[in-house]
């Protein structure tokens, strides 16, 4: 069995992929080896049981377990010499593409578990203290009441000290840099409520706020945990997307042997071998062989370019047709890819810090509330002729009742619900700030290649002999050039002719013999060399038999689905629409002739794109950038808010605030609609919270607040805000579940 | 009312046991794949029908 698998692994995977598969091996806690693979196509329990059954049946697997939430497989190999490439090959045969899991996602984030623990402790405290408080409110007297109060204190003090830590540390770090965030009033209220209640307890007083302090913590921790979960899920989903490039290179040693080398260990002067279908690992100069390179992610040119000895090739370009040897010019840290990432982090720094709406609210809210408490203290002191204890009690109860519980929940709960909604639509949101920014954009900037277009060109209708067309298709299916793929796919009605002696000439086309006649499919001028007459255009693809008349093919880019819907929706909403492309002006104009645009910029270099967006921002504009390429990574980071399709380069996906998994561009307009509705719900939540304060503050200032009123009012306002936010998940739009349901059905049978 | 002195400690101990078992399950990785566990239950590992079933499964080919 292993022998067969070994063959299969070699057939399916290049040496580069086999080398990269070894990155998935990790040392487990007990010292043994485990293999962590990221499998983005796992969708349901059917996939889980299919994979687990197949892997657990293997001799070289001790146990395999799938994690559906993280879309990851953890394999404990039996025996010491496990080859992860075999597992990847086995998964591939089941129809799942797998790759070594990222280090960043290998260990779960400790913050999430810490918050969950704090929430559980606060929940325990809130339940038990409330139980005792209800007895006190309903009229327990004398020693019973004092005992209950003492018990409440014994539960509340450790719970507040443990569960309040996330708020205390956040408030402290804000105060240290002399800023105010929402956690400052929260911390103040919780601590004061606890201290005041302890003081009252010592004096045998009646009014203790232990229940309010702990319930408050419980509600707020719940909101904060959900917020954290949302971000964790989105980032693990984005990291789990299939990586475009294995991070390593095949290097030819001086003795002629090929070896897999980690990307960071590639040195200038190393001889790299880049086979067809692989990405160029570092900037290099071709020394042997020639090939077609797909540079669409680098420059935005949709059609491949020829690279032959002496040409420079940039890291991140995809090698399409031939195998080449190249000499590395720069180490990975200085390659084009790394430069793009530097440009991206620079743009991010220049973007300035966006102040979250909750913090802006806190900056207004905290001073008002604290001032009000001070005034209450002074006026009570004055009216009661210096009864400072009474005055202090009322002032602190003002602070407790104005503790921004509803305000603290107003934003995160709405964002969590919106993120869940977006995830169902196939849009991943990285954090809440993105959705706040998306709601107030005033312009939308699009990249062309790969964003507006599908990346797969389409063939215009051709009129020619059936024999010629089937011969052309026979040649086209042998090539991985995008134009050939388009010809093969769109001439599907023709039977493919049998071709012998196929030979692919990178940069020109493909040649072979059909029924003994020589035939060529490729550049017009190259085909014309063997044809009887020149082709219609020297650069467009053409086909001819030796001595025959050439047939010209016109290959054009296709727009993604939903481009028109998105542009219509945005222009109705009064947004400016711009296309920034690295491609030539004619191609951009040809593609966008029926779109209403404010500006078209062609031939843009990565730095031009960044400066275009930075200019917009200096003019006070708030642009949305939608792009996919490596050349867009800087622009995505420079924009007010950004989106990328899941087909984007790794750098593009990292830079964008949103990643959409759907094929159509209508996801952009749909996400914008959800963002606007979320912003409306957040505003409503703030209004609700302010209304609550308008009622509660006068009562507190008048000294009428008892612990019972405080507990009821604060819980009621929080529940109101949560209920209002949940309205976001009720969707008026019908979502397309068809594909998922079909897959489920397929998996179940 | 003296029963309270027994009942309240019982309540607290029960609460603490619940809290401790939650911490234990959290550390044990029970919450690492909530989605997966929800779906796993729908798919039986055991493909053979239970012996008590006497009727023919519709999937079996009819001779």
Number of helices of chain B: 2
Q: In terms of quaternary structure, what is this?
A: heterodimer
What is the count of β-strands of chain A?
28
Q: How far apart are the first and last residues' alpha carbons of chain B, in Å? A: 76 Å
What would the average pLDDT of chain A be, to the nearest integer? 82
Largest sheet of chain B: none
Radius of gyration of chain B: 23 Å
Q: How big is the Rg of chain A?
A: 32 Å
Strand order of the largest sheet of chain A: 15-28-27-26-16-24-25
Percent strand of chain B equals under 5%
End-to-end gap of chain A: 26 Å
Question: How do the SSEs of chain B run, as a string of H and E?
Answer: HH
Largest sheet of chain A: 7 strands, mixed
Summarize the model shown.
The complex is a heterodimer of chains A (about 750) and B (about 60). With about 750 residues, chain A is an alpha+beta fold.
Would you mind describing this structure in some detail?
Chain A has 749 residues and is an alpha+beta fold. Chain A has five domains: 2-106, Alpha-Beta Plaits, CATH 3.30.70; 110-238 and 354-410 and 699-729, no CATH class; 248-347, Calcium-transporting ATPase, cytoplasmic transduction domain A (Distorted Sandwich), CATH 2.70.150; 414-448 and 560-676, Rossmann fold; 458-556, Calcium-transporting ATPase, cytoplasmic domain N (3-Layer(aba) Sandwich), CATH 3.40.1110.10. Chain A has a seven-stranded mixed sheet, with helices on both faces. In chain A, strands 7-6-8-14-9-12 form a six-stranded antiparallel sheet, with helices on one face. In chain A, strands 1, 2, 3, 4 and 5 form a five-stranded antiparallel sheet that branches. Chain B is an all-alpha fold and 63 residues long. Chain B is elongated, with a radius of gyration of 23 Å. The A-B interface holds A 44-46, 48-49, 53, 66-70, 108, 113, 116-117, 120-121, 124, 127-128, 131-132, 144, 151, 155 and B 1, 4, 8, 11-12, 15-16, 18-19, 22-23, 26, 31-36, 39-43, 45.
